[in-house]
Amino acid sequence: MNNLAIDIGRVSINHYGETLCGDHSEEVVAKDGSQIIVLADGLKSGVKACILSTLTAKIISTMLAEGLSLAECVATVAQTLPISSEYGVAYSTFSIIHIINNRRAEIMEYENPRVIMIRDSEVVPLHVRERIISGKTILQSSVELKEGDTFIMMSDGVPGANADLTYNKDWTEEHIGEFVSALTFAGYNAKSLATFLIEECDKLYAGKPHDDCTACIVRAIKRQSANILFGPPVTINDSARMVDLFMSKVGLKIVCGGSTANMLAHHLGDLPVCFDKTHVRIEGPPMSHIDGIDYVTEGVITMSKVLEYTNRMLHEGMRIEEADNDAAAILLRVLLEDVTDVTLFVGLAVNPAHNLGIKFHIKEDIAEKLATNLRIMGKNVKISYF
Fold first, then answer.
1. Engineering a disulfide at 63: which of 11, 73, 95, 329 sits with its beta carbon 3.0 to 4.6 angstroms away?
2. CA distance 339 to 361
3. Residue 137 bridge partners (DSSP)
C-alpha cells in the first residue's frame, strides 16, 4: 500500500417525472482489500431500468469482489437478466473501476459514455484495448495512479444534455472533461465534483431531464488522518495513557468536551484552555483553543449534531452546504472533506449531566453510529474505548 486513498462521489438525477432512477452505482471492498466501483445504466428509465441497473451493478461488484473474472461476471449478468422483447437487450450498460492496492486502476467499460481521466487538471487519454466477452465488446485500460488522478464515470444521460430533445453538441465527453478538469484545480472533493457536473446537466435540461443522469467521480488523494478525543476514561488512572496515545497519532487533533479538554490540557503541562476567537461567529456551544490542538469543541451536543448531519446526508440527501453555522458543521466538513482516516478515542466516564436514565452509554452510542455512517461515506474509522 502507498500513501494514497480513494475518494468517491456519486450524484444522480432522475428522468423527469420518474420516481426511481434507472442508473445504479455500487462500491464494494474485495477480500484482498481492493475497491470495486460499478456504474450501471438500465435500459431506458423507470422501474424496469432501475431493476436492470441495480442487478447488473450488484452482480458484477459482488462477483469481482469474490475474485471471479470479468468474463464470468458478464456471462452471469447475460444469463440472469431478462431479454427486452422490444430492444432485444439482456442487461444494462456498465463502467467498472477496480482500484488495486491504491496503486493501480483497472477500467472496464461496456457501452457507457467513455470514462474520462484527468491528471494535473488536464484530460489524459486512456490506452484502451478491446476484448470480446460473450459476444460483447468490452473496453479495458490500466493506469498506475498518482496523487490527484481523477476519473469520471457517467451514464448516457450526461453527455448531450439539452432542454429540447436534440443532442447538445456543445456538451460532449470532451466538454465534460474540460468542465471537470477546471474544477479539479481548485481541489474540490469527489462528491463536490459530481454535484457540480450533475447540476450543470440539470441546468442544460432546464430542470426537466430527458434521461436519468449519474456521475461517479473517483479520485486518488493523499491519505490524511483525524484523531478525535471524546470524553475522559472510566478509570482516572487511564487518563495519561489515553492522552499519550491520542497525541502520538499523526494527523489533525480534535478534542470534544469541556472535561476532556481540561484533562488533556492538564496532562500536557497545565496548558490554558481559551475561548477560540477565530470561531466567534458560530452558533450553538462555543469552541475553545489549546496550543497544539486543531479543534476544541463541546462534547455530546456537538458530536450528536455531527451524527445528525451524517444521518440526514445519508437518508435525506442533505448537502454539506446546508449544515448550520455551528461547531458540528465545522467538524463535519473536516471529516468529510479534509481526511480519509478517522480514529476515535472515546472515554466512557459518565457525566452526571448526561446520566438521566435515558442513555447510560451515550458517548459509546454516538461513536458507534457516527463510525458506521463515516464508513458508509468511504472513511476508514477505528474506535478505542477507555
1. 73
2. 27
3. 132
Give the end of a domain, one of 187, 222, 257. Answer: 222
Q: Are residues 29 and 153 in the same domain?
A: yes
- 8 vs 295: CA distance, rounded Å: 26
Confidence (pLDDT) at 353:
60
Same domain, 217 and 273: no
In the 3-class helix/strand/coil scheme, how is 168-236 assigned residue by residue? CCCCCHHHHHHHHHHHHCCCCCHHHHHHHHHHHHHHHCCCCCCCCEEEEEEEEEECCEEEEEECCCCCH
Low-confidence winner among 73-87, 205-219, 338-352, 367-381 (lowest mean pLDDT): 73-87
**Please, what's the largest Cα pairwise distance for the chain?**
76
Q: Cell digits for 71?
A: 468474463
- CATH code at 136? 3.60.40.10
Structural domain span for residue 147: 4-222
Please report how many Cα atoms fall inside a 13 Å half-sphere around the Cα of residue 134, on the Cβ side.
14
Residue appearing with cell numbers 459476444:
135
Collapsed DSSP state (helix, strand, coil) of residue 245: helix
Which of the listed residues 222, 240, 255 is the one where a domain comes to its end?
222
- Given a cut of 80, is residue 85 above it in pLDDT? no
**Region of residue 317 (left: phi > 0; alpha: psi -120 to 50; beta: else):** left
Q: What are the grid coordinates assigned to 215, written together?
A: 456521475
* Pairwise CA distance, residues 281 & 206, whole Å: 37
190 and 273 both lie in a single domain: no
Nine-digit cell string for 246 = 491520542
Element (H, E) at 331: helix 327-333
Burial of 79 (0-12, 13-18, 19+ CB in 10 A): exposed
Collect all residues with Cβ–Cβ distance below 8 Å to 123 and sequence separation of at least 6.
Answer: 116, 117, 174, 177, 178, 181
Least confident residue range of 86-90, 215-219, 296-300, 327-331: 86-90
